[in-house]
Amino acid sequence: MPADSDRAGHLRGPLTYGWPGPGRLVISADDYSGHRIPAYFTQLDRKSIPLLERGFGWVEEPYGR
C-alpha cells in the first residue's frame, strides 16, 4: 500500500527511519489523524533463536491415519 494512502487507519506521508544506537532501528510515520507512530526494533543474536540455531525437522504423519 502506498505511504500516502488517505483511508482511515493507514499511513499518510513518508516513512522515516533511523539508527539511534548499535543494533537498534526506529521506523515512524504519521497516521491519518496526524499522530506520529514509531516502531522500535532491536537486533537479536541469531544464536538466541532456537529454530535458527538447531534447524527445523519436519514430522511426517503415518499414511492412513
UniProtKB/TrEMBL annotation:
It comes from the Bacteria. This is Uncharacterized protein. It comes from Nocardia aurantiaca.
